[in-house]
Task: structure prediction
Amino acid sequence: MPDWVEPVVRYILEDGLPGTLRVSAIAVAGSALIGIVFGTLMTIRFLPLQALIRFYIEVFRGLPILVTVFIVYFGLPSAAPRLEFGPLTAASIALVLWGSAQVAEATRGAVQSIPREQHEAASALGFGWVGRHGFVVMPQALRRLLPPFVSLLVNIVQNSTLAQVIGGLEILEAGERQNERLTAVPPIGLGEIHAFEIFAGVAVLFFLISFPLTRLAAYLERRLV
Amino acid sequence: MLLATYDLWAFVSDNREELLDGVLNTLKVSGFAIVGAFFIGAVLGAARAHRIPVVSQLTAVYVEVIRNTPILVQIFMIFYALPQFGIVFDQFTVAWLSVMIWGGAFNSENFRAGFQAVSYRYREAGYALGFSPLSTFLNVTLPIGGRIALPSSINTYISVLKNTSLMYVIGYAELTTTSLNISNLTLQTTESLTVLAAVYLVLVWTLSALIRLLESRLALPETR
Result:
């Protein structure tokens, strides 16, 4: 293997991969938390609340995620200087806004797919709204949410590359920095172009993360539905 | 000190020509890519549904590779990696080509599902009437399966439109690049992001509304 390969691989795995994992972990946790709450609240028949959450869902599902990233990274600080975030945090926030809208929509569907009799039986047993949802409806709805949730995980891992556009150090940015370093003239780099090898390697790395997850989502879909 | 004030209308009227060009470029790239993705989806989806040897397996690989790698990495491959082999495209070509390849992969899955949902009895009826396999496909499977695939394929086209915003990274002057460039020149960040978001929402919401209209118009009689 040529000499240039080892430092490039090390940099991508040691400095890039943790960035991707951090953004993905925050985005998944945040999306699940906010999305499930919003989705459940949407099943309450209270029009202003429903309209508000519907608007949130339509806006963040309608915007390209890159535009949401720009709004968080450039727009928030120019509106309120205190809301200035680093690239990775900004990308995480944008992904939470997008992901929670996806989860909210899926949760609403899952909660509404639970037959009315389940609600009535729980009420008859003396559960209030919280107990009815917490102990009877949600455990069943969450099972149905599992396959779309794994697909969301795949999408979030892939879309974490959007942090690269604002300079956040994740896998793609690590690859891009190494590509530029190698292209630079000798004292700094090698004056060689290895863009294909590097970006193909980045693609393979993402494939290795995503492929098992998409298989898992397909398997869960068959098992649970 | 220059105080930044929020003046949306002045911003729009000062930059209306650039913004309009940006919107038109977004629509142009999306249009090229959507038409391409339709044909890729219909042909490869048919190959998958009818298990045509070699083409079917190659399509499966194509779909898995595209679905399991970030589209941004795909754009980097086309824009930065292919020139290493002397294959150089201009920004416009990279723009529509990359989203077309992406949309084609998703669309071939949409069409595969649609064609597979067409009962084989319909095809048998076609053969019994003396249609060749190709004309059975064109006259029976495509019109019925295409309609079944319509909602999911239009969702793919909407994603194609949204993904054209990624052409910011190659500097192609579509809507996102244009707005960000204006924002950098005039420092009217809030205004340019407002316009950017509003235009995308109008485009996406209009398309979604069109889907619902088209769905009810083109839906198969028994599902209406």
Q: What stands out?
A: The domain at 8-223 of chain B is CATH 1.10.3720.10 (MetI-like fold). DSSP finds nine helices and no strands in chain B. Chain B has one domain: 8-223.
